[in-house]
Amino acid sequence: MRRRHAVLREIEKMNPEVEYIEIYRKTAMLEFPELIALGTLTGFFKTFAARRVAGLLAHTGHILKNPARRAATTGILYYEVLYHGFDHPRGKTAINLTNQSHSHYSIHQDDYLYTLGTFFVESLRLVDRYGWRELSDPERQAMFLFNKEYGRRLGVDVERMTTLDEFLQWYDEYEERYLQPTPPVRKVYEANIGGLLKRPPKPLRPVVRQAIHTLFNDRLRAAVQVPRPSWWARALVSTVFTVHAAAVRWVLPPRKSYSFTPGHSRRFIFPNGYLLDPVQGLVDAG
């Protein structure tokens, strides 16, 4: 157990106001890599459930053509920044590419700020619910401060991100106002869930779909117009998370290397790895 908490002890010696990148990196890539990634996936769906965002995406049609690649690209660029830092050449390139992808759209600042929140709020809450331990205060603050700086570099108005608690309140209030069932929301949701379900074998796809829906809260399910998952799906997912938390806490050795390796992620999208090109973006290394 002492070895299991070694990273946490390191984190508790650090200053989240200054070392938030390293703290968040350890949290996301060593302590809770699976839950952080799942939270990011949930956040991805929440972005499209916001009616203005869904309307914009449905109008442009870009995400409808290759949703899996767009989702993977968004996640990779985010992790490139987290892995390297904001001022590393690869971190700067990832920021620039993200800005380029948004430059053609007129995005309302509230929508932009909410989208920024989906990168970490859902992960934070998923770890709170299913993690093998609770997030420490330095970890929570580091997640908040990293994403605030990330947003600032993307041109998001982050002045309203005064404290984590106040931002979480704003985030929930935004959802109450803007996560609504509309034809574009449903259209973009179907494109994305369809792209995601291409990976598992066809007989398992209904099970995987229900498992994904267990990660959705009532507001998100209402917006994308899907029913509450069956009792067996909820029980199955809860059991999987419980067993995973127990295994990490009591059985598995602590992770020694980061879960993200630049150039070698998302093999189903980039089977040969990827290159981070300043002009072309993510390019298959093969």
Give a brief rundown of this model.
The chain is mainly alpha-helical and 286 residues long.
Describe it for me?
The chain is built from 15 helices and two strands. The chain has 286 residues and is mainly α. The protein has one domain. The chain has a two-stranded antiparallel ribbon. It is globular and about 50 Å long. The model has no long low-confidence stretch (mean pLDDT 93). GO terms for molecular function: oxidoreductase activity. This is ER-bound oxygenase mpaB/mpaB'/Rubber oxygenase catalytic domain-containing protein. InterPro entries: MPAB, MPAB/Lcp_cat_dom. Pfam families: MPAB_Lcp_cat.
Radius of gyration: 18 Å
The tally of strands reads 2
Shape: globular
| Spatial gap, N to C terminus | 43 Å
Structural class: mainly alpha
* Beta-strand percent range: under 5%
Helix content percent band: 55-70%
Task: Give the averaged pLDDT, no decimals.
Answer: 93
Total domains, how many? 1
Question: How would you sum up the major sheet?
Answer: 2 strands, antiparallel
GO molecular function, one term: oxidoreductase activity
InterPro entries: MPAB, MPAB/Lcp_cat_dom
Pfam families: MPAB_Lcp_cat (PF09995)
Protein name: ER-bound oxygenase mpaB/mpaB'/Rubber oxygenase catalytic domain-containing protein
